[in-house]
Give the backbone structure.
Amino acid sequence: MKRLLQFAVVTACLLMAALLPLRSATLERLSMDDMIGKSTGIVRGTVTASWSAFTGSVIYTHYKIQVSERFKGASSSTVEIMVPGGTVKDLHQGFSGSPLLNKGDEFVFFLWTSKAGITWITGLTQGLFTLPAGSPSEATATRPPSRELTLDAVTGRPVKDTALSMSLSELRSRVAASVAAQGGAK
């Protein structure tokens, strides 16, 4: 009888563990042209504020971005973006692939806005290029390789992500050329 009870407890624990949601991300590898095409906006900006709040049962961190330059999309001096994960009171939720942004950090953001009006970073960490503090107008924007499982869109097989680095002038040119090739929807 004791052995049957132990078996039942172990089985119940394994079943519960299998049913718990996994907090990991699988990303589709996006080329620069993919990111440009999928993004409704691409901006250079500085994080000015952040706060976390529940949306349903999920915590999201909201970031306010002061826009200093627009590469693609509607003109606006600020944009609010949401990233899955954060802390509300004593509750913390973390999501693999979600970047953590700090007040004062400057980035080039590849963004897409949903039909509900919520703005997200395209491809999570893939759509976030770091700029050095106090960067001049011709700084180099860099993005480290994603640490998340990244899949090739065609084959569905895992691929190794690589770091990207380019000058802002090269980035401006790539965005302008891609937008023009897609019919000029800037």
